C-alpha cells in the first residue's frame, strides 16, 4: 500500500541531489503509506514529513566523514539511517533495530530502493558489542544521552564518533551526561549544528568521540615480560 507524500520544499532538491532525489521521493511515499499503516510513523507526522524528518536527517550527513561504516542505533522506520544511505552512497550503513515489524519494513525499504550500501540487523546494541565495530554511530529519539552512551561507545573503535540528534535539549543532556562520559572513556564531547540554510532551526547534534575503552590502558613499555 502506498500513499502520496506531501510536496517537498524547494530546498529538498538541493539536499537530495542527482540520483538521490528519486530515492528520497520513493522513501517519502513509503513513510507516508506503509509506515503509517503499520504504526511506525504517526499520521500527524505526514504533513511535516520533509521538514521534520527527511531533511532534518539528511543534513546530519554534513558531520559524517567519507567512506565510513555507520550504525543507526534503534533505526525504527529508518530515520536517520535510510536517509543517510540515500544522500551519501559513499558510506555503508547498518540499520540496527530489535523489533521485528520495524525490521520487516526496513528490509522492504532496502529492497524497494535498491540500497546496496545498507544492511539490516535485528538486535540491540548491547548484543552487538564486542562482535562489530563501526566508525560512526547515529541515533534519533532513541534514549537519553546517558543511556545512549552505554549502548554506542562499545560499538565504536577508538576515534569513532557518536552523532546523537538531540534538538533543544542537546546542551542539557550533554551536561547531565558528564559522569557517564568519563565512565565510558569518551575523548571529547561537543555540540554541533548542521543544516544551516537548509532546515530551520539547524539540527543540533551531540558529537562524542570515543577514546580508549575503560580497562584497556596502554601497556607500560618499561615492564618486561617474565621469562
Automatic annotation (TrEMBL):
Keyword Methyltransferase: yes
EC number: 2.1.1.-
A GO MF label: rRNA (guanine-N7-)-methyltransferase activity
CDD domains for the chain: AdoMet_MTases
Sites where the protein binds S-adenosyl-L-methionine: 74, 79, 125-126, 140
Group of enzyme by EC: transferase
GO CC annotations on file: cytosol
Annotated protein name in UniProt: Ribosomal RNA small subunit methyltransferase G
Family to which this protein belongs: Belongs to the methyltransferase superfamily. RNA methyltransferase RsmG family.
Keywords: Cytoplasm, Methyltransferase, rRNA processing, S-adenosyl-L-methionine, Transferase
Compartments where located: Cytoplasm
Naturally occurring in which organism (per UniProt): Spongiactinospora rosea
Matching InterPro entries: rRNA_ssu_MeTfrase_G, SAM-dependent_MTases_sf
Protein purpose: Specifically methylates the N7 position of a guanine in 16S rRNA.
Pfam families to which the protein is assigned, alphabetical: GidB
